[in-house]
Amino acid sequence: MIPHGGGAVPYHWGRYRGLAQDLKRPPLRDLLLNNVFFDTCVYHLPGIELLTKVIPIENILFASEMVGAVKGIDPETGHHFDDTKRYIDAVSWLSEQDRRKILRATRFAFTAG
């Protein structure tokens, strides 16, 4: 599990694919994506959109720190920054089936304390 949408991974996916190719490794989809997952703790819609464009839906798991590291309300939207479900709901090209796949991880509950 790579938290926070994989960090820089979605931005550098092409680079990683090229490195794997140069090293004569299998394609990343075959090499990594059987057991690597990315969570949705990304605090803005453009980040979630990038994640869903680059990473296969099957490798994205729902997560939210509601209310966690960023406790404030975004003055541009009026919502908590870390209310990540609303970003998933706002991705226009996701089908309902894709949304269900991402949200399937909600059966796993993690609590602090």
What is this structure, in a nutshell?
It contains five helices and two strands; from the N terminus they run H-H-E-H-E-H-H. The chain is mainly alpha-helical and 113 residues long.
How would you portray this structure in words?
The structure is a single chain. With 113 residues, the chain is mostly helical. It has five helices and two strands. It has a two-stranded parallel ribbon. Residues 106-113 have low confidence and may be disordered.
Average pLDDT confidence is: 87
The backbone outline, from C-alpha atoms, is elongated
SSE string = HHEHEHH
**What is the number of helical segments per DSSP (H or I, 4+ residues)?**
5
Distance between the termini: 21 Å
What percent of residues are in strands?
under 5%
Which stretches are low in confidence, meaning pLDDT under 50 for 5 or more residues running? Answer: 106-113
The main pleated sheet reads as:
2 strands, parallel
The computed structural class is mainly alpha
Return Rg in Å: 15 Å
Q: Give the number of DSSP strands.
A: 2
Strand order of the largest sheet: 1-2
Helicity range: 25-40%
List the helices and strands and how they pair.
Blueprint: H1 13-22, H2 28-31, E1 38-39, H3 45-54, E2 60-61, H4 85-90, H5 96-103
Parallel strand pairs: 1-2
Which terms summarize this structure?
two-stranded parallel sheet, 5 helices, 2 strands, 113 residues, disordered C terminus, mainly alpha
